[in-house]
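Human:
Take a look at this sequence-structure pair and walk me through the tokens.
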Amino acid sequence: MVKCLSLKFEIEIEPIFGTLALYDVKEKKKISEDFHFDLNSDQMKGLLRLHTPHTAISTLARSAIFSITYPSADIFLVIKLEKVLQQGDIGESCEPYMVMKESDSSKHKEKLEKLRLQAETSCSRLGRYRMPFAWTAIHLVNIVSSVGGLERSDPDSDSERKGHGTWNERKKKGFERMSVGEDMCNFATFRPATLTVTNFFKQEGDRLSDEDLYKFLADMRRPSSVLRRLRPVTAQLKIDISPAPDSPHYCLSPELLHVKPYPDLRVRPTKEVLEFPARYVYTPHTTYRNLLYIYPQSLNFSSRQGSVRNIAVKVQFMAGEDPSLAMPVIFGKSSCAEFFTEAYSPVIYHDKSPEFYEEVKMKIPANLTDNHHLLFTFYHISCQPKQNTPLETPVGYTWIPLMQHGRLRTGSFSLPVSVEKPPPSYSVLTPDVQLPGMKWVDNHKQVFNVEVTAASSVHTQDPHLDKFFTLCYVLEEYSFPFRLKDCIISEANVEGELKASMTGLRGALLDTCVRFLHQLLSKLILLIVHPPVIAGQIVNLGRAAFEAMSLLINQIHKNLEGNQDQHGRNNLLASYIHYCFHLPTAEPAMPPTGGATPAYELPIQYATLSRTTARPSTLHLARSKSISNSNPDLASTPTSPDEEVQRIIGSKLLHEELALQWVVSTSTVREAALQQAWFFFQLMTKSMSHHLFLSSRIDLPRRQRFPDRFVDDIAALVGAISADVAGRYHKDVELVERLNSSLAFFLNDLLSLMDRGFVFNLIRSYYKQIANKFHTAQNPSSLTALRMDFTRIVCSHEHYVTLNLPCSTLSPPASPSPSTSSTTSQGSAFSSMHQDQGVASMFELSVPFRQQHFLSGLLLTELSLILEPDGEGVFFLHKKAISAVHSLMCSHDADPRYTDPQVRTHIAQLYLPLIPIVMDTLPQLHDFTDTSPARGRHAPAMQDDGDPDNGTISQSVAMAIAGSPLPHAKAPNFTMPTVAGRQCSSLSAECSRTLLVSFLWVLKNADAALLESWVSDLSVLQINRLLDLLHLSVSCFEYKGKKALERINSLTFKKSQDMKARLEEAILGTIGARQEMVRRCRERSPYGNENVRWRKNVTHWRQNTDRVDKTKTETEQESVVDGNLATEASLVVLDMLEIIVKTVLASELKESVLGGVLRVLLHSMAGSQSAFFLQHCFTTQRGLVFKFPEMLFEEDTELCADLCLRLLRHCSSSVGSVRSQASASLYLLMRQNFEIGNNFARVKMQVTMSLSSLVGTSQNFNEEHLRRSLKTILTYAEEDLELRDSPFPEQVQDLVFNLHMILTDTVKMKEHQQDPEMLIDLMYRIAKGYQNSLTCA
């Protein structure tokens, strides 16, 4: 945005007018229209009041918004100043401004008064004429670059930054050497600047052309500029240059229309300046624009006789030849009326061959005729008043007819000039025609050069488009015969000409095609929907229109590759379908068939409303033939040819025609359509939906919505495209990927419009085509990737759940026995099932499951195949398949339609086979137990020697004091199951985590009774595998804490890792040595022992540059989410453990399964868990110990030892509720043990040993909290009425006392680490305490 603030000269004697425009020196092109501004004082404006009685507010603008599509370092803002015409050349006019100063006003007082008097006289007499005065230019890159700008010593201008002091000064040489990059030409985000331009250059009368200006501008950039040595015109022009706001107030468009927001009509406006881009801008016209720009360039009257020296060119836009028909369409400049009927060029004093730089802007009418023309009248202006001498004397005339053969004439013209007024009917001819009896300047030579350009959404200015649109108009208006250039268009040749014009569209400029894209496509669609009728015969142009459309769309796609979304869809075309496309809503006018017969007045109706019975049967039989004559073979006998025509016309539906033409297309047309299949698919989809809505067919049963022939065409089309995907996947990788996703989106849309059974058959046929290629495929993984993408897109349908029939039974309808697997009833029907075959099939990808839940079956089958461990080269598909399932579950979870728990149960039923799939994948999952903190009973033994500084006691010392009979270096309790030949997990941590969260979602939402029934049917091996999976899930989602999250965030390499993964996927697209190399790299340890320097993502500088600094709030939010997820996952695992326990109660599997259940339970107790979860966990643990005490007290010592350690650790928790739960559990454990054998020796021993391990090694151990818990246990024992008379309370008291003593002495050991004698003494006392405990036991 440029704001003109003030313009001051040393002397103020006359009004001065300014013009701004942008020029690109490199392209040698003016890249904006002129913006005129007037900064004169009211006193100066008053001098011209005679000539400007009315001033429109739109001409008072002082700020302008310039658009720059192609920023460049070669763009200059050129400022030209003009003054009122006066006697004397430009040099004489400038002299006072160069010599005189306001400070010397007393010295030149008389001279100044004389000058003011002269100016006043000139203004009153010559106020309508201007003369060139001075100019300057601002190099925009100096304003917007962050390097530095114009310097104080620069003779062109001084500048200052708003609120930022002066600019940094730079050495001129350094600046000249500096290469100007694109970052320096950022015209959108630079700092606003206020410039004071101090020096202007005098205009040279013989160097006013644009060519001369470009030379001056190029010279300005040189250090030793010739211009800098010239004597300047001293002035002060203050302007603001800043980035334009997003929605400026009080803004006028180039047509002077108000742009919202425009709150007050009385406020001085800002003008939007039209851009003339340096290169093509591929943007369609979305608003009406019809502007014409006239640029008079030069005139040569050197051989013209008579007094012809001060020449002004008057430009008029004429609607006819009468002078009164000059139209008021010429835009005013500054401080004047809004529109004029004439415009004058500036006058160069005493120059018979002047050059011009004037721009005349016109708002021309939309419906131009052959009479509209531009009239140029040349006047000699008498600067000095003389008797009997008029102010202006006409000395020549010339003109340009604007329309020729229906086309607007633009471009550069060299015209002869007539000395006399043109004769009548001159406007239909060009001045080049030697009219008899006319006198011409210089013997009819071309002496006047002018350029005419248009910015129009009406006139294409392209011969190919013009011909096509003209022929369409001829058909619509039925105006035969019609003259088109040298050809007469008649009913006989219009079909051939129209087809030729459609073929010729490929020769049109792409820039013009894009600008008129919406009109072009709409006309082609109209020709398909409404085939023209000529002389009672239908002309079927569907094939030609489809061909033209295919080639046009493909050309746009190829040339505008940067303008596409992730699926390869061009944004211009997508926006056309979304915003502009609609089916034609009225029938075209019917041609007259006889002399007196009136044209048929058809009702205005939706174009595709049709009776299908009226379709000619030949269209049904001979599909591949283009029908261009009347067809007598109708379903019912018509009463007249016109009725026949009407019926045929009414039966064309766009989606039907597109499908038909696509199916029968061949060679280049078919290839072009395939390249942009998405466009035709979306066009068909929108046409189908519009048709259903407007014809009220949306309420019909789906099978009756579309005729059979269209359904057949769709089936043939999908089959052919599926074959293309399967057959060309290794040759045209990019095309096939686009085609595959386009087909998937199309079928997704069809599920909303057509019979769903039919669409499912189309999906099945696609699968068959791909499957047939698998055996012979060179690279099956590429086909799998395509099929996976296809499935993901189809499954993203908004009614995906409903399409899968979640409430239906698995038994086929013809089954003699009623299905027992239905979940539609309110109460679950599964509680009574045990060995029901129906339940088993619900958890398998069985044929009944895949038939009933079609889309879900496809998705899970793909996942199952991709996760097979022996699948070679498909590991890059893991993420694709797993994320597809995961994103679907996320959408179900967030969908407000599925919040009801019963509904969720039905949805989970669609994913039940996922549970066995994940169980089978267990060996491939990432082992999260490796990275999680060691939590096995003796896990801290890994650090064999305690660190004396951190106050812990060596684990080996603590265990030796306790007299532990167990070797402390035992393997951890839980190890991931290993599979022979498997070196490491093949699934990444991210994929494993996503798969596990999907698995837990199904477990959480599935019907509990159904899960029970399924678990009861599993073998011991399968249940143990399920337990291993639950164990891994607890490790995977364990809460790491805020500090761990902060540490992870600070070492994020997400960007580089993502890029690496994408690169690997790209490489793996083809089979061979590269794929093998990447696979081997993946199988190695992440950064192995190889000492390579190029791994930038493990160097320190990389960590710093890629670090993602999160705010404290974000980190806290993340930790809350992480904690909630950990709790949720653990609770789901706990529920599943309850189900497993419930099912094994009645079976013989206790021994082998219950130990596993308790191990998972203990594992979940060992991690960082929320108090909410621990409350439920302790409840489950107490129930388990109560039901199966022999599991702890008669069998493996390890389980009892682990349980005691976990309970004791939670007894020292800082959370009161956790301590109370842990104390209760520990007391009940002792009590249970006592009731079995009248003492609790085992628990005593394990508690004592656990205490030594806990106190000796735990850093965050709290002695005070543990003492409170021991006191709680003692209270329980004292108040237990059932065992009050038994030795149990006394034994508990002894144990607690002993534990207190050991606790005290162990804590003292930490304090006396440096006193050997005291240490030995304490060790002895502790050992005695252990001995006493064990003796009691």
The CA atoms of residues 86 and 406 lie 44 Å apart.
